[in-house]
DNA sequence: CCAATTGTTCAATAACTTTTGAACTAAGGA
DNA sequence: TCCTTAGTTCAAAAGTTATTGAACAATTGG
């Protein structure tokens, strides 16, 4: 079982921008970028919305070619398609992520974590 | 008479991305970038849609902080807000424009121009 | 096998966006 | 002043996107 992904050359600029132009999805991408290398599953994003709603937003990101989802057991391991995005749109992902990191208006993944402070 | 523009710090990343995530508006931005320095008025974009429709798209771009419109007589002189965008989101506009330049699927301003070829 | 976990699909609804045409305003030139 | 040019506003229609809950499917652990 694999999920449908566009090929690198099917990734469309307006579509990528439109898909990133949503606070929930931008928060997902920002979190993926902050954990780059670590594949995350959908439940890690539950702070951002209901299970159903995340399924919807994660499908949008995948169908636009922003993320890759690998099926492993009952989980989907989600990663950024940095390689393909950098090839198609050099510098775009980095500048979006850098701007998103500074965006205090975006929802936060892990907002309920226990903070340990010195 | 002046038109409402957001201040630089009111420009929102998701909103800018959403507004750029439309082929007509991306074509407008691409054309503005290709003529940077030269202020253009709305009628120069009539290839991309009806007068009313352009008024709508140009208002979206202005309200998102992507463009600036200066009222001069009955015209609005439209320019990219490159200074503010570069300050708020370094590298973003350049990477979007570079990608848009390569995007053959976008509509073209001046598609009906007479081409002189050697 | 049974139950729990992980995530999808479906249909409904609500909310927004795009596009259109007709009517309008405001400035500039004859 | 009257006409033209440049662009806006408004309301309607069409289309799209986001959110929800209930039902479903597939895998894993006991």
Automatic annotation (TrEMBL), chains A, B:
Q: Which SMART domains match?
A: HTH_ARSR
- Kindly state which keywords UniProt assigns to this record, in alphabetical order: DNA-binding, Transcription, Transcription regulation
Domain (HTH arsR-type) spans 15-94
Q: Which Pfam families match?
A: HTH_20
Query: Which is an annotated GO molecular function term of this record?
Result: DNA binding
Looking up PANTHER family in the UniProt record yields: TRANSCRIPTIONAL REGULATOR, ARSR FAMILY, TRANSCRIPTIONAL REGULATORY PROTEIN
The beginning of the lineage is: Bacteria, Pseudomonadati, Pseudomonadota, Alphaproteobacteria, Hyphomicrobiales
Highest taxon listed in the record's lineage: Bacteria
Q: Does the keyword Glycoprotein apply?
A: no
Q: What is this protein called?
A: DNA-binding transcriptional ArsR family regulator
């Amino acid at each position: 079982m694999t999920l449908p992904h566009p090929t690198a050359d099917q990734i469309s600029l307006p579509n990528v921008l439109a898909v990133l132009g949503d606070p929930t999805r931008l928060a997902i991408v920002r979190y993926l970028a902050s954990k780059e290398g670590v594949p995350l599953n959908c439940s890690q994003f539950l702070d951002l919305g209901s299970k159903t709603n995340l399924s919807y937003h994660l499908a949008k990101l995948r169908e636009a070619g922003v993320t890759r989802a690998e099926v492993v057991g009952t989980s989907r391991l989600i990663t950024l398609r940095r390689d393909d995005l950098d090839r198609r749109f050099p510098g775009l992902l980095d500048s979006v992520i850098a701007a998103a990191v500074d965006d205090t208006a975006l929802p936060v993944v892990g907002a309920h974590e226990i903070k340990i402070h010195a």
